[in-house]
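Nucleoside-diphosphate-sugar epimerase: structure, please.
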Amino acid sequence: MVLVTGATGFLGSELAKQLAVAGYKLVCIKRATSVIPAILEPYAPHITWLNADILDVFALDEALQGITQVYHCAAWVSFNPSHKKLMIKTNVEGTANLVNLCNQYNIRLLHVSSIAAIGEAKPGELITENNHLEETPHENGYAISKYESEMEVWRGIAEGLNAVIVNPSLIIGAQAGKTGTGKIFETVHQGLKYYTTGSCGLVDVEDVAGSMIQLMNTNIESQRFIVNAENWSYKAIVTEAAQNFKVAPPQKEAKPWLLNAAWRLSALWGFLSGKQKGIDKISAQASSKTLNYSNTKLTKAIGIHFKPISLSIKQICSQLIATT
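Here you go.
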């Protein structure tokens, strides 16, 4: 039996769908308030849903009875400074609980980390799995939570845990809608005047889920893999999206000083109104960085052929147009 945490989320639901299509019987855990995604409704006969918070050791223990493989996708994602402490506590302690129980019951674990837990390479070089964070970014609560969560998995591995880790780059896909990475494309759809000078790695959610299933069913353990299809500049991403939407692409470069002003104004608005609006500091700083990732280790391990990012962007834009 296979258990998936975070199956109500963007990646977790795609993973559960692919497992169900492949004929697996699944146990998926969720919070009592979470809504089962529509894309999983056709696969109801394959999925048993249990209400279990990853911070509740006793509920997790009960859910893991009879399980041989666990995909750990659950994580709180937020760049709101007010969420920082609780997000770190939730993500790290939840992962530690799962690691301990998987070790206790000899369950194989596939842990979803992030490129946020990987360090930067020298200028002009691709970032690989061998690049480690030299210093945890104190202001980025999400990066801290993913780094420390991954450290819990490595701690478990040192204690005998059978585990493998994936570090996806920016995950995109049509089913994101207008949330998460979907916000990028919806912003272009509504009209975007500025582009930034940085770059990032991109990968379709279908490829992330597929690579996870392939890795789980190998003998590979005690390793981590960057899951990245292609590296794109932010300007190229928004220009490609604009062309698909048939709107004017952004023509003005957002200089670092403008981004700094934007996040400060956004923070002031949030303080005065109690609502988050506009760009946050972490996103503003990252958007000017050149961060390009290697996928060599993963392609050698499982021979994956990634969906072209231009096709992913086309599908995302078509979906947004259809639902507008």
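Notes: The chain is about 40% helix and 15% strand.
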